[in-house]
Amino acid sequence: MHRQLQDGAEAAQAIFQEGQSDPVLKILDKVVQGIKHGTDISENQEEISKLILNQESRAELIDNILLTHDYDRLVKYVRARKVLEDFLLLACQRGDLSATEALAFMKIVMTESETIQHRVKAGATSVKDIINLVSKADYAVQAKEADLTKKFDKTTPQGREIIRRLAHRLNKVQKGAGGATKTTIPD
Fold this sequence. Notes:
Blueprint (H helix, E strand, L loop, with lengths): L1 H19 L2 H15 L7 H8 L2 H40 L4 H23 L8 H8 L1 H12 L6 H20 L11
């Protein structure tokens, strides 16, 4: 017990020391001390601005990065779920489950089946334009489009309208041919 208390004190001290070097905590301490003692905190304005400006944009950026990370986690969880479901199905087929386990597994199967049916009925699985959907999500396609639009940056508004109309006609021709034609735009 004595060792645990000593380890706990050492860990607490390390956490405290780490907090002392944290720039956010440093500026927070300066602001709190200024408020507490009634001193001028405007001398810290530049540091405060770096920390608090554009919070909505920062939050959106972090949220989108975390969402991308969650896509990766989703794949891992779906794989794990498949392994577990296969294991339970095999155990069920072999008769390895007790009556209680079989009833619990049956409840899971029923709930998941209903969830899948609701998603299908709600249209969650119907994608009308798969090519457009994939190209919107594909970074490489987005980069190519950005490069292509850079070629027309210095074009006049009339020139851009002519290009837009030509592109529209080209898309109509491609759709009319079932998208079978391959078209390139010369440099």
